[in-house]
Amino acid sequence: DAMVIQNPRYQVTQFGKPVTLSCSQTLNHNVMYWYQQKSSQAPKLLFHYYDKDFNNEADTPDNFQSRRPNTSFCFLDIRSPGLGDAAMYLCATSRDILAGGFKTQYFGPGTRLLVL
Amino acid sequence: GEDVEQSLFLSVREGDSSVINCTYTDSSSTYLYWYKQEPGAGLQLLTYIFSNMDMKQDQRLTVLLNKKDKHLSLRIADTQTGDSAIYFCTPGGNNAGNMLTFGGGTRLMVKP
Predict the structure, then answer these.
(1) Could you say which of A8, A34, B16, B40 is the most buried, measured as most Cβ atoms within 10 Å of its Cβ?
(2) How do the pLDDT tens digits run along chain A, 116 residues long?
(3) Residue A79: which residues within 8 A CB-CB, separation 6 or more?
(4) Between chains, do A104 and B31 touch, taking CB under 8 Å as contact?
(5) Best residue in B31, B43, B107 to probe A by mutation, most A CBs within 10 Å?
(6) Neighbour order of strands in the sheet with B9-13
(7) B48 and chain A: CB distance < 8 Å anywhere?
(8) Any chain B CB within 8 A of the CB of A25?
(9) Which residue in B has a C-alpha nearest to residue A44's C-alpha?
(10) Does the beta-carbon distance from B105 to A102 stay under 8 Å?
C-alpha cells in the first residue's frame, strides 16, 4: 500500500544534542510537509517542500531545518533541542493542485520526541 | 489568515449520534476536510466535501456544509467506542501553497 512512513516512532534526545527525524513516502507526491503538534493542540506547520523548493513558515525557529534529497525522503533536523521542542512531529504529503491533485494531505504516524 | 473554530470536547453514549461542528472564515475554500487522530497516532483523512455540495454521506458519516454561514459539521451515526478520537476540521484554501488550516480539534469521548 502507498503510504507515508516516519522513523523512528519514538525518539529520545538530550537537551542540546542534534537530532534528525525521517520521513519517506511511496505516494510520489511532490509536496511534503513537517508539522509540530503539542499535546491537545492542532498541528502547527513548520515548513514544506514544493518539489525541491523549501518554504519556511515565518514563525518557525531557526533551530529547525529540513532536507529533501529526493522525492521520496524528507528529514527534519533539530540543531539544539530544548525542552520546549518535545512534541509529536508529523510528516505529510500531497499532490500539488497544479499537477492535477487536490489539497488532500496524507499523514504519517508521527514521531514523538522526548527531550531530557 | 484563516480562523477555524471547533468546540473542544464532546461526550456521547455508545449507539447515539455525534455531531461535531466547525466554523471558518475563508469563504474561498474549495475543499473542506475532516481528519481523525487516535491517541499517539498521526492524522487520518476521514472524509471531505467539495464546496459546491451541501451534504455528503459516507456510511455512518454525514458531512453538512452551510457556505452562507461558513459552518461545517460531521455527524457520526451509531457512535462506537472506536470512534473516540480527536477530530480536526480543515478547510483547504485556494492558496497556491496547498496549505491547510486546522481547527483546534474536538475530542470525542464515547461512553459504553
Answers:
(1) A34
(2) 669 999 899 999 999 999 999 999 999 998 999 999 998 789 999 999 989 999 898 899 999 999 999 999 999 999 999 999 999 999 999 887 665 556 788 999 999 999 99
(3) A18, A62, A63, A64, A65
(4) yes
(5) B43
(6) B9-13, B106-111, B85-92, B31-37, B43-50
(7) yes
(8) no
(9) B102
(10) no
